[in-house]
Specification:
Protein name: HMA domain-containing protein
InterPro entries: HMA_dom, HMA_dom_sf
Largest sheet: 4 strands, antiparallel
Structural class: alpha+beta
Shape: elongated
Strand order of the largest sheet: 2-3-1-4
Distance between the termini: 61 Å
Strand content: 25-35%
């Protein structure tokens, strides 16, 4: 009698995990869709920078690019904040074009 119950529990766990993963995928797709709407999004990146020269190169890679609204760089924290209508992958690519590694730390909306 225990075998059918344990099989039911195993199937239930697998189904629950599948449904939970589906919800996360759907939420991620919504975030990506909202980012593609052209509305500026705040992106926070951890970027390997050791000096002001590094920061200047990152700033030059981002400034003046269509879709980039603002840039804030903190060398001490190795942090770059960008407000842009670009996707996080596009901004990351621009930063990494300077030869520095960038890792997305956070995404947020901008005030209306």
């Amino acid at each position: 009698m225990a075998a059918p119950v344990s099989k039911f529990i195993s199937v239930s766990r697998k189904l629950g995990t599948f449904l939970l993963n589906s919800v996360f995928i759907a939420q991620a797709a919504t975030v990506v869709h909202n980012m593609d709407s052209g509305r500026p999004t705040k992106l926070e990146f951890a970027v390997q920078m050791t000096c002001e020269s590094c920061a200047d190169k990152v700033r030059a890679a981002l400034e003046g690019k269509p879709g980039v609204s603002s840039i804030s760089i903190d060398v001490g924290k190795e942090e770059v904040l960008v407000e842009a209508a670009l996707t996080s992958a596009e901004v990351q690519s621009l930063i990494e074009s300077t030869g520095r590694r960038a890792v997305l730390k956070g995404i947020g909306g901008s005030e209306q």
